[in-house]
Amino acid sequence: MQLKAPRGTYDILPPESSKWQYIEGILKETAETFGYREIRTPIFEHTELFERGVGTSTDIVTKEMYTFKDKSLRSLTLRPENTASCARALIEHSIYSGIMPAKWYYIGPMFRYDRPQTGRYRQFHQFGVEAFGSNSPYLDAEVIILLIEVLKRLGLKEYELHINSVGCTQCRDVYRQKLIEHITPVKDRLCPDCQTRYQQNPLRVLDCKEKSCHQAIVNYPTLFQHLCSDCASHYDMVKEALKANSIDYRHDDNLVRGLDYYTNTAFEIHIPGIGAQSAVGGGGRYNGLVEDCGGPDLPGIGFAMGIERLLLAVNTLAAKGLDSGKSDVFITTMSDQYELQALELLTRLRQKNIRAEKDYMGRSGRAQMKYADKLGARMVIIIGDDEIQQGYFTLRDMQSKEQVQIDKKEIVESVKDRLAKFRGGNG
Ligand code: AMP
């Protein structure tokens, strides 16, 4: 049997990996500009973290986790998301007793057992930010502005920002009761999952993937109508801040997000035209999460975006000449006996950060020139009998086809100067 990557996973090969590096570069730079620093948490955590942090009535915890027992029979789970891990790290390292807010970003793989389709994988990658320690609505706005700035820097103009407020635990308790009362008479028309979970968590019915559930509960009371005055004014201030920053949004009553830990502001970014899975990112405030994970009562806000879905949206990258795999200079040897000299020169060039390559397939001189062209080399250094006997190298400009002889001792500096000129000129 030929071995293949597991269903829902895939390899990122060059030149595709250049696009990933490009996107990741923009994500990191944007987050750093906004004052967020990188956090790297383990790929697996104790299962209990996600049960407590994400919530036992969520699809993620009930159906989608990759959970296994290790050799000591401890239950571990490949992280399905990273907010709970960040809360765990905040508590474990008592970050909350330092300077607040703690502002972090992360990029890395997440794992969910779901049916794969375009834009949905079992191992996928998220970029996310988390800000702990402040309940300011302007921090909610900052996080959303960061998300929009990322899209702008990636050249994405067609997006829709949906926002809602899911209230605090007090206003949500009142609302939950109203919603249960609305759902109970039609409960038989719900999908089997919702039939079992609507009593425990009726909000899950609102973001259920089954159409029949939405049809069954039409005209349901909205959370928005039940916000307490503090939550309503928090939401108003977020909207005001977005307006002040010229960020268009749509209030969306249906937006409750799939995880239990959200409070107040919830938001999602959709990009039409990338298929059924149009949500590129989403997040919100999670003021109860740190406490749920065993820490102090500390507010937080964040979002996560799927890098695969960003890539689906950013389809113009190839045209921008992003393939970073191009060589600066290629060394051609006219005979096998000059291989060592070539290798030694290669090392000296690379030590100066020059992307240098040579042949390892025993190609003829002519075939080496063709190969150099394929690698996109700007220059070729030729090492032949004349060169070795007279102590120079021939340097060929692959665009102008001009050839010059350069003293052996000056070759590295000469290549460096020429590259600087190319880059300073037409790149
Ligand atoms: P969520 O926390 O579920 O809203 O996920 C945040 C973002 O991660 C989504 O908007 C997607 O862009 C991405 N995402 C979530 N699940 C998957 C998946 N199975 N495959 C690819 N991307 C995903």
- Could you say which structural class the secondary elements and strand pairing correspond to? alpha+beta
> Any idea how many domains?
2
Mean pLDDT: 93
Radius of gyration: 28 Å
Number of helices: 16
Strand order of the largest sheet: 1-5-6-11-10-9-7-8
Biggest beta-sheet profile: 8 strands, mixed
| Percent of residues in beta strands | 15-25%
**CATH topology of the largest domain, anyone?**
BirA Bifunctional Protein, domain 2
The CATH architecture category of the largest domain equals 2-Layer Sandwich
Bound molecules: adenosine monophosphate
Level-1 CATH class name of the largest domain: Alpha Beta
Tell me the name of the CATH homologous superfamily of the largest domain. Answer: Bira Bifunctional Protein, Domain 2
Shape: elongated
Low-confidence segments, ≥5 residues, pLDDT <50?
A: none
Helical content class? 25-40%
Question: Distance between the terminal alpha carbons, to the nearest Å?
Answer: 48 Å
Number of strands: 16
Describe this entry's structure for a reader.
The protein has 16 helices and 16 strands. With 427 residues, the chain is of the alpha+beta class. It has two domains: 16-168 and 228-313, 2-Layer Sandwich (BirA Bifunctional Protein, domain 2), CATH 3.30.930.10; 326-426, Anticodon-binding domain (Rossmann fold), CATH 3.40.50.800. The strands form three sheets. Strands 1-5-6-11-10-9-7-8 form an eight-stranded mixed beta sheet, sandwiched between helices. Strands 13-12-14-15-16 form a five-stranded mixed beta sheet, sandwiched between helices. A three-stranded antiparallel beta sheet has the order 2-4-3. The chain is elongated and about 95 Å long. The site of adenosine monophosphate has 18 residues, from β6, β10, β11 and α12.
